[in-house]
Amino acid sequence: MNEMIERYIHDVTRRLPEAERAEVQRELAANINDMLPESASEQDVINVLQSLGSPRLMAEQYRQNRRYLISPAMFDLYLSVLRVVVLVAAVFFACLGVLLAIPSGSLEDVISAAFSGLFDGALQAAFWVTLGFCLAEYYGVQRKPWTVDDLPQIPQASVTISRSSTIVGMILTVFFTVFMIVMIVTNQWLLLLVRGSNVINPFSQAALYRIIPFLIITGALSLFVSVLKLYWARWTWSLCLANILYDIVWISITISILHWPDLLSPEFNAFSRSLLSTVLNDPSLVQALQSTWIINGLSALFIVVGLIDCATSIANTVKGSLGSAKSTSS
Could you tell me if 164 and 142 lie in one domain? Predict the structure, then answer.
């Protein structure tokens, strides 16, 4: 099959539900072949595809469930803009709400402001994007005429990365980084221990303040890797290397922080010592376990999580490379 025809069919079927693509591909390929003369030239192919029109409109003709809130010519663009703008606005207003609520010193106010900003930002963005496209339709804003030069290249076989999941990951990275910094600054933690009438913070405040720069560094690196995922949208060796380097950095930082001698608060050390003493009668064993069981256990957990993420990224990259090689050879 001619490459230009393959690209046209790909551009049509990628806009349809997965269950409808195979049948539409066969039917559209047969229709195009019937329209072409014998020994068709490149110009004949161009003329036929131009006569069929934009793949966006062609896909709408094949779609079983029609969509008419926005016209077929604009609907895919509307969805693309809507996803990006809603997610960006939701993150921006959530972070803005958190920053404005910090002076109140109340963790409940910070959490409430974050979720309020998240939903308000998403709703506002959805409303204005939809209104903008409706006005564009009403006043007859026209897109440039479609030509065969607009056909996208057929992507190589590889392990793709969902853009929506990547953007959600970026949102969570920003939210939890800001959330952790807020809890440190306000000294209000969700993870608290209650012993009698005393509330125990497991971490010393001095150590927590030193963690803030490392939170910003790891959050920025995570966002950088996410931007690379958005750019490539598939696993490549460059992206794999960047992801592995990020895993090494955050694991190293985390383990280093866990071994700070003043990380745990004196109150928590006393609490854990008394807890172990009720189970063990050997004071030396209590001291040894108290100094190692939490740190070593958490270190091992973070190392395992990092190794799993590295192995997953390598496996996806190798799978994508093998798929590309098979596609090229065929």
Answer: no
* Residue that is last in its domain, among 17, 33, 62: 62
Q: Taken in order 210, 215, 217, 218, is the CA torsion positive or negative? A: positive
Q: Who has greater pLDDT, 321 or 29?
A: 29
**Same domain flag for 176 and 296:** yes
What 3-state DSSP class applies to 85?
Answer: helix
Do 164 and 296 sit in the same domain of this protein?
yes
| Claim to verify: residue 100 and residue 228 sit in the same structural domain | no
**Domain check: are 131 and 274 in the same one?**
no
Return the exposure string of 83-117: e unless at least 16 CB atoms fall within 10 Å of the residue's CB, then b: eebbbebbbebbbebbbebbeeeebebbbebbeeb
Q: Where are the alpha helices (DSSP H) in the chain?
A: 3-13, 18-35, 42-52, 55-62, 72-101, 107-138, 163-186, 205-232, 237-258, 266-277, 283-329
pTM above 0.85, yes or no: no
Print the domain residue range for 274. 159-330
Lowest mean pLDDT among 121-130, 138-147, 253-262: 138-147
Residue 194, strand partner residues: 199
Q: How many domains does the chain have?
A: 3
**Residue 154: inside a domain, yes or no?**
no
Q: Are 120 and 93 in contact (CB under 8 A)?
A: yes
In a domain, residue 288? The reply is yes
pLDDT band at 302 (very low <50, low <70, confident <90, very high): very high
Closest C-alpha among 256, 174, 182 to residue 222? 174
Give the helix ranges, DSSP H, for 102-148.
Answer: 107-138
Cβ atoms of 122 and 166 closer than 8 Å? no
pLDDT at 249: 95
* Dihedral sign (CA 58, 61, 64, 69): positive
Closest by alpha carbon to 95, among 115, 81, 109, 122? 115
Do 213 and 254 share a domain, yes or no?
Answer: yes
Cα–Cα distance measured from residue 301 to residue 293, given in angstroms and rounded to the nearest whole number: 12
